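Q: I'm writing up a methods section and want to include an example of the input and output format. Could you take the sequence below and give the corresponding predicted C-alpha cells, formatted cleanly so I can copy it straight into the document?
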Amino acid sequence: MLIILVMVLLWLGLGSLIYFIIRRQRITLSLPQVFIFFAAKIMAGAVYGYIFQRFYKGDDTWRLNEDAWLQYQRLLSSPRLFFSELFTAVPVPPGGIFYFQSDDYLQNLEYAITGKTVALFNFISQGNYYINMLLFNFVGFWGVFYLYKLLADKFALKDRQLAAGVLFLFPPAAFWLSGLRTEGFLLLSTAVFLYHCNAWLQQKRPLSMFYSLLAFAFILLFRNGFALALVPAVLAWGLSLRLKKGVRKTFALTYCGLLALALLAGMAWSRLNVLLPIARRQEVFLSLEGNTRFNLTKLEPNLLSFVKVLPEALVNSFVRPLPWEARGLLQWFTAAENIVVLVFIALTVYLYRRRHLRRGNGAWIMMLLMAALANYLLIGYVVPFPGAIVRYKIIAELFIIAACLSAVPPSDYVAAFTRSRRYGRYR
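A: Here is the clean output for your methods example:
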C-alpha cells in the first residue's frame, strides 16, 4: 500500500513538473492530458513488469533493475568508479557480478548507461522495480512528446488532441516502451534528433545542428542498426526540402546512390562491406536459444543472398506471428497488433488517394515510411525470435502511425468510422 501511495504522489508531482515545463510552449498539452498520458505510461509499465515477472521469470527488464541496485551500491561506495567505468574499455565489469555480460563494447556501454541511470533512481525507490519504472517513464514521456510536437505542427488545431491521444495511448507503443529497457531512451534520442533536424532545416539554427549530432550519437550507442536505417531517410528528407525537387525522385536517387556507393566500397575493400556486419549480427541471433523462433535463412554478405532472404525478412517483421501461429498472451497481442497496423495503413491509403490530402507533407511522410521500412527489414533479416522482433520494431511502428496521421488528418479517420457505422446501421 505504501508503494502505491508513493507512486501516486510521484505521478502527481512529476506530472505537474511536465506541465510546468511545457505550459508556455507554442505546441503543448493541457494539464488533464499530461496526467492522463503519464498515468497511461505508468499503468502500461506496471502491467509490463507484472507480466514479465509472473510469466517470463523476470526477463531482462527485472534483471536490469537488479543490476541497477548493484550499480547503486557501487555509487555509494565509490562514486568515482561508478562514473569513470563509462569511459573504460569494459563499461560493465566482467566476473559474474552483473547479470548482463557481453563481448561487444557498444552493448556494454548501452547497458551501463541505462543501468547507471536507473541506479540514480534508487535514491528514491530503494530498488523497487515499479517506482524505478515510473521514474524511467518520466524520462521516456519526453520522447513521445517531441514526436508529437513534430506532428502537431502539421495539424489544424482540431486534430491535435486526437493525434496526441493516438501517439501516447496506442497500446503496443505504450506497452513496449514502458518497461525498463533501452527502447525508452532510444525513442527520446530519435525524437530529439528529428525535432532538431527539422528546426535546422527550417530555420538554419546552428544550435539545432549541435543537438541533432548529440542525439544521433546516442542513437548510434543505443541501436546502431536503427541509426543505419535512419540516415538515408533523413538525408533524403533534407535534400527534398533543400532542392525543392519531386519527393519520390529525390528519395529514389538518394537511396540508389547510397546503395551503389556502399556496394562499390564493399567491392573495393571488404572491410567496407555494409552487408557483412548484418550477416554477422544474424549469426549471433541464430546461435541463441529461444522458446519460439521463425524460420530464417542464413545470410551471406553479398547482395544476391540478401535479395533471396528479402521476402522472408519482410513477412517475419510485418506479418508474423499469424493468428493461428500465436502461442501465449504476448504473441496473441502481437498478432492483433500486426493486423491493426496493416488495416490502419490500408485505410490511410484509401483516404489519402480518395481525397488527395496533405500533399505538402510528402517529404516528412516519406522519411518516416522509409526509415520504418528499413528498420523492419533489418530486424527481419537479423532476428528470428517474435518476442524480440516486436520490441525492436516498436519505434518503427510508431513512425508508421505518425506517417499515417501526417497523411490524413486524425478527424478524417473518425469521420470514416462514423460513416461506416451509419452505413451498417441503416443498411
